[in-house]
Automatic annotation (TrEMBL):
This is Uridylate kinase. Catalyzes the reversible phosphorylation of UMP to UDP. The keyword Lipid biosynthesis does not apply. It comes from Lyticum sinuosum. GO terms for molecular function: ATP binding; UMP kinase activity.
Amino acid sequence: NIETIKYSRILLKLSGEALMQSGEKSCIDPDFIDQICQEIKDIYENGCQIAVVVGGGNICRGATMSKIGIDRANADYMGMLATIINAIAIQGKLENYGVATRVQSAISMPPVAEPYIRRRAIRHMEKGRVVIFSGGTGNPFFTTDSAAILRAIETNCDIVLKGTQVDGVYSADPKIYSNALHYNNISYEKIIQNGLHFMDTAAVALAQENEMPIIVFNVHKQGSLKNALMHQGNMTFIGN
Ligand code: UDP
């Protein structure tokens, strides 16, 4: 129901890891990509303008590649290229569901994706196209979490939704510590001070400086994207 979604333009951050099926050879889990694309379609049909930033950790991470002796900056470019692969997968699935999309890339790759052009991205969203931002920030030594916050600020999104494997921010990893405390609300300050690692510190600091709110939710729970947008169910709200 359109009245209950609080935001008119949102940015969804999907990690590469979320796309991966554990124990399988494929880097993309067909069931998960189906589920999340249906959920995106659902909020799209509610009139929400949507941007997506996708990670690349299911295919390649700079830090891992640098451990095998590849220069870190080059390794990070490998990671950025991985995000473009994921973006094209999400585009393909969304278009199967009849959702109009555009992929923009921070790394110029004309046959595959539009270059990142801020005003054009905004125009796409105004015209009802889901814009998938790929290539991260285009700079090594950054992450796609920073890209998500940056693009959300640049394109005047109301909020960033970060899909994770658990239903919000905890005082410690709830998969390891059963007594970890779940936060319904938490400040940027406290996240940085307590070193809570659901998102890198540079991204949290950028969000704080620009007062970009973030919702952290469990992307694997069906219906959780819409619930998060309606502030329903278990999730964490970060903001002032
Ligand atoms: N990356 C980068 N600059 C960016 C975004 C990403 O260098 O602005 C590289 C980095 O090596 C990272 C990889 O791309 O490890 C994949 O991105 P990320 O780890 O953020 O993906 P996720 O954890 O969301 O799957």
